Amino acid sequence: MSYWQGNGKAAGYSREVEAALNAVRAAESALLATMQAAYPKDSVVRVVHYRGQFFGTVLGHDTTGTRICVRNNHTGKTSKWWAAHVEVLNLAQHEEST
Predict the structure, then answer these.
(1) CB 61: neighbour CB atoms within 10 A?
(2) CB 79 within 8 A of CB 62
(3) If DSSP codes are grouped into helix, strand and coil, which group holds residue 55?
(4) Intra-chain end-to-end CA distance of the chain, in Å
(5) Whether 44 contacts 89, CB under 8 Å
């Protein structure tokens, strides 16, 4: 049951708006699940950006803009990177490149 249901609860409230909000929340949940599957926590990754690249470890996920939270393995600095800049590596690929 919606918070908005019932007489005098929310005058002029639109059920279409409520349905759209529910759809957004479901999409965000699906996005987070997909990001967690594609970029698992503690995965070794390579981040490629306009100044170069670095290797790091996935710490978490941010569904606002599909960003991956990565700790730089060299500096220890943590930052969020767009998923398009983050490549998951297997351990053998990481060892070959270092």
Answers:
(1) 21
(2) no
(3) strand
(4) 56
(5) yes
Angle at 56 between CA 44 and CA 43, to 5 degrees: 25
Could you list the pLDDT tens digit for every one of the 98 residues in the chain?
A: 455 565 556 667 788 888 999 999 999 999 999 999 999 999 999 999 999 999 999 999 987 778 999 999 999 999 999 999 999 997 555 455 55
- Sign of the alpha-carbon torsion through 95, 69, 58, 76: positive
What is this structure's pTM? 0.73
- For residue 97, give the nearest of 44, 51, 42 by alpha carbon: 44
CA dihedral over 60, 68, 46, 86, signed as positive or negative: positive
Q: Which of 41, 47, 83, 43 is nearest to 66 (CA)?
A: 83
Amino acid at 42: D
